[in-house]
Structure formats: C-alpha cells, structure tokens
Amino acid sequence: MIFVPTILWTALVMGSRVPVPSFFPDVHFVINKYLAFDFNWSAIWAIANLAYYYVLEPTAALLYAPEMVGICLTAAAYSRQPGSIKFATILHVVSWILQFLGHSVAEGRAPALLDDLLGALVLAPFFVHLEILFKLGYKPALRDSIHQGVKEERAKIKASELSGKKSQ
C-alpha cells in the first residue's frame, strides 16, 4: 500500500516531461512552488482514471479526487525542478522493486500487474484507496464482494500455475 502512490507520483512526474502534440492547449498554471497544473499526458492520465473510478464507485472516487489532484499538481510542479526526472526515475525503480518484494513476502506471489498490466496500473491506486476506506468502515458489503472476487481470482491463478507445472 505504501509504494503504489509513490509509483503513481513518480510516473506522473516522468510523464509530465513527455512532449505533447501541438494541438494540446498550452496550459501552465502555477499555484505555488509545490503545486502547478500543466495540461499534459500526466493530467490526461489522472483525469481519465478519476472518470473511470467515478464509474466504478462514485462516492469513493469523489473521496479520492483530492488525493489524485494533489498527486497530479505536485508531480507537475516537481517535474520542472532541476534533476527531478533523474530522482523520480530512481525512486520509481526502487518503489517497483520494493513493491515486488512486499508482494512476494506478504502474498507469496508477484503483484497483479503481471496478470493484467493495464488493469493493475489503472486500478492499483484506487484499490489502495478503497482498502483504506474499508478499514474505516466504508461499505462492508462492497468490501466483502471485492475481497471474494480477489480470492476467486487468486485461486484461478494458483490453479493455472499448478496445471502449468504438472504439464511440464
């Protein structure tokens, strides 16, 4: 749960520096040294993810919006600092390594991104947010449904891994 927001933030920092097509409006709004908005690929990623989260679970998405906006604004501001891309890249790689190690120790398997890359990258931040909300008592029926779905998916993966080993 610790490294998913870090991975998201560092990805948005790096994505902030990816050139955008000339038809993108040139929007750069500085709030202060630590918060800025740039209309770029990172902003589009954040907006699209928030819209998707809203479709999935509107109340939780609304509660997550300030966090996503904060991540996006700080990433945009930080990306303009000297050495930011180098630092973000190092932190990104270290966070992925620690994420894999954490999953290996806690769950005995790699993170879900190896099963569904795009789904994991899009849903992981929201899943972490939901887990925090669930610990605070948010929608127990939804929590139980999601946890049951995860349990079933893990069982399918484990069965698939076992059948792959038997056929070797």
Explain what you see:
By secondary structure, the protein is mainly α. It contains six helices and two strands, in the order αββααααα. It has a two-stranded antiparallel sheet. A hairpin with a 2-residue loop joins strand 1 (28-32) and strand 2 (35-38). Helix 1 (3-16) crosses helix 2 (41-56) and helix 1 packs antiparallel against helix 4. The chain is globular and about 55 Å long. 23% of the residues are buried.
The outline comes out as globular
Low-confidence stretches: none
Spatial separation of the terminal alpha carbons: 35 Å
Q: Biggest β-sheet, characterized?
A: 2 strands, antiparallel
Spatially, the strands of the biggest sheet line up as: 1-2
N-to-C order of helices and strands:
HEEHHHHH
Estimate percent helicity: over 70%
Radius of gyration: 18 Å
The total of beta strands comes to 2
How many helices in DSSP terms?
A: 6
Summing up helix and strand content along with how strands pair, one would put the structural category as mainly alpha
How big a fraction of the residues is strand? 5-15%
Mean pLDDT: 88
